[in-house]
Fold this protein.
Amino acid sequence: MNEITSFGAQGIAPAEADLMPHSVEAEQQLLGAILTNNDVFDRIDAVIGKEHFYDPVHARIYEVAAVRIRKNALASPVTLKAFLEDDAGLKEYGGAAYLVRLAGAAISAFAARDYAQMIYDLAIRRELIRLGRDISARAGRVDVTSEPKEQIVEAEQALYKLAEQGTSETGFQSFLRAVTDAVKMAGAAYQRDGGLAGLATGLTDLDKKLGGLHKSDLLILAGRPSMGKTSLATNIAFNIAKAYRKGRRPDGSEGAVNGGVVGFFSLEMSAEQLAARILSEAAEVPSDQIRRGDMTEGEFRRFVDAAKALEACPLFIDDTAALPISQLAARARRLKRTHGLDVLIVDYLQLVRPATARDSRVNEVSEITQGLKAIAKELDIPVVALSQLSRQVENREDKRPQLSDLRESGSIEQDADVVMFVFREEYYKEREKPGDHELDKMAEWQAVMERVHGRAEVVIGKQRHEPIGTVQLSFEGRFTRFGNLAKPWQGDGRQGGF
């Protein structure tokens, strides 16, 4: 083996260079293998990039070689000489003669992937050291604009990105990779008999309209009070958690092959209240009877059985009030890291606090919706956020909500991929009951009530991937439970969400 002088990274102080993990020899061996046999590049291209090399001269050599090989052109000491003749760093190493020495010193192409993995691992270690130093330096500076809690959140976010992606910056990806991902998604839907590209909610007609809950999407579920926003969200959460099955995915990774792990931020109700509501829906025992303990033996048995079924479901509830969006993101990352996370539900959007005080409520809501969308993209999961509607709905004759009814609607409508409204006409018609002496009006009212009883609508006002429209659902008021509405040819029975 020809002797090659090992040089430190350019621009790094000798003391710092000695402390940073690196192996110049491994970089030399890998580059030598590539320059000797360009086919080696295909085996290591998915493992490392130019940013993983410690020595910047080696990084530039790798970059030029990679560009030529991707163009099906030869990358050798002779062909690379023309592109690197004016490189000041390479001149310090001996110029083009250094490229020849690299190729001549390469031992074996078979070990190239091992060298690539070693270079990658050392690069991650260096990135961890840099992050640690940055955290330490920021903590050491007492700055009134940088609170310790914010620093913890930012540090956790940086570490999470490093753990998930192997680098602090993802950068651009090629269109080929994006197309490949799209084909995989379509293939997964095709394997489910043309069913869903996204996560099934358990409500058949809603799934058909949405195509399931898509990864990286922000879905807004809005409605006036008493429409059943939280009930529909808990129905969906329990259906997804109940269907959870872990296994090997088509891409070879371990994770949910059916259903998923659900994170539920309940900013309005306590975890106990939310669990009682889910138990009521699952056991078919009214929640007011559960609170009073007024249950028959059969009802209590169903209640206990439902509780046992719930224990095994990967449904995690956080009921911390007035969470800042930054803390919400940090907790979602932590949940994904420790237990996995396939869908996140936030009840509800207006109760989330912005990270910093803003001059207007519109700007605050904009920061929150942008933060929720960022969580969906970063964790690659659907995020379902509940939202209140303004009172202007009540002033119209037709009470069906529309996009303009969203509070601070501009930012919500802009950032959301899907906007859905829960609407129960029965709720409004009940309050229009005429007096007992108005027989004609009473008969008309009863006919209308019979038509709308036990029915709910989910109005899809915006959807990036699919057409908008309305989905009919069944609604059982005693248990505040939504389900699939039986079609006329399916008989009288309804299939509930549970």
Observations:
- The chain has two domains: 14-165, 197-421.
- Confidence is low (pLDDT under 50) at residues 1-15, 166-171, 488-498.
- The longest strand covers residues 455-463.
- Residues 14-165 form a domain with the DNAb Helicase; Chain A fold (CATH 1.10.860.10).
